Amino acid sequence: MRKTYPRLVLDGLVFPEGPRWRDGRLWLCDFELWLPDRRGCVLVVDEAGSARTAVDQVPARGLGWLPDGRLLVVAGRSLLAVEADGSLSEHADLSGLTSHTCNELVIDPSGRAYTGTVDTEGGAIPGPTLTELIVVQPDGRAEVADAAMRVPNGFMITPDGGTLIVAESRGQCLTAFTIAGDGGLVDKRVWAEVPGMVPDGPCLDQEGCVWFADAIGNACVLVAEGGKLKERVETDQGAYACTLGGVDGRTLFVMTSTFPSGDSFDPRPGRIVAYEVDVPGAGTP
Fold it and tell me: At 80, is the secondary structure helix, strand, or coil?
């Protein structure tokens, strides 16, 4: 780790999540969880902290890009595609497959998408209900790949395209699947157990390790396959997602926020903070 103190990139957000680094910019969702209309948006931020709204008034909970360059957004129980003119079209209707709101997203180079469902109505930590992991084919056809996930809360695909790694928040672990030729998931296995932590919003580095936000620990943690903890950076609020990016891929962007408490609560406590790390990002995202 080159430095262990954070740099503030942007504040004044509500609940930033789902960060992705693309074309020299950080893309993210801002869940407006406790604002009256609870709509949300997609923001694009440069490294200096200058932000613009890419998609407004959409309950975005995950981002990815199709091979043709269109942005795909998780919204409610649908995947929405942002067309060239800025309009939204429904890429996939997942309402018949989901027990709760869809959350998080990763897309492979063929345009196949993986998302999951999370019951977060009770607050920061997802409920105990087993929820679904869903695979969406490039043409929008979708099916449940696993109906017994312990709250899938972030997805990564290894650089060789052969493995999907999932952060299971209620399972206190990272779970791996082998990706079959048709996009189906087989050989489910524990990739790393992280007892006492709630893994959320993970990303891969070039050594094959995973950074994840610990949703109850005010920290981001680097873990190797098998569960060895390698590094930890502290945050002064709850940490709910992270991604590696920046010019050399060695900037760890962390999404933080604080849930409402008391009458004087700041409705926009969300921040993006950044740490410089030694190993750059890899895989998708």
Answer: strand
Please state, in angstroms and rounded to a whole number, the distance separating the CA atoms of residues 204 and 284: 8
pTM of the model: 0.94
Provide the Cα torsion 225, 73, 240, 107; round to 10°: 10
With a CB cutoff of 8 Å and minimum separation 6, the contacts of 166 are: 116, 133, 149, 152, 154, 155, 156, 174, 175, 176, 177
**What is the per-residue DSSP string for 216-228?**
TTTEEEEE-TTS-
pLDDT digits (tens, 9 = 90+) for 76-96: 999 999 999 999 999 999 999
CATH ID of 7-282, from 1.10.10.10, 3.40.50.620, 3.40.50.720, 2.120.10.30: 2.120.10.30
Q: Is the preceding peptide bond at 59 cis, omega within 30 degrees of 0?
A: no
Structure tokens at 111: 């345009």
- pLDDT of the residue at 239: 97
d(CA 214, CA 199): 5
Q: What is the largest CA-CA distance in the chain?
A: 53
At 218, give phi and psi (nearest 5°): 50, 55
pLDDT for residue 283 is more than 70? yes
Q: Where are the domains of the chain?
A: 7-282
To which residue do tokens 């296995």 refer?
Answer: 189
What's the one-letter identity of residue 202? Answer: P
* Cα 221 to the center of its chain, rounded Å: 15
Task: Report, as an integer, the average pLDDT of 115-137.
Answer: 74
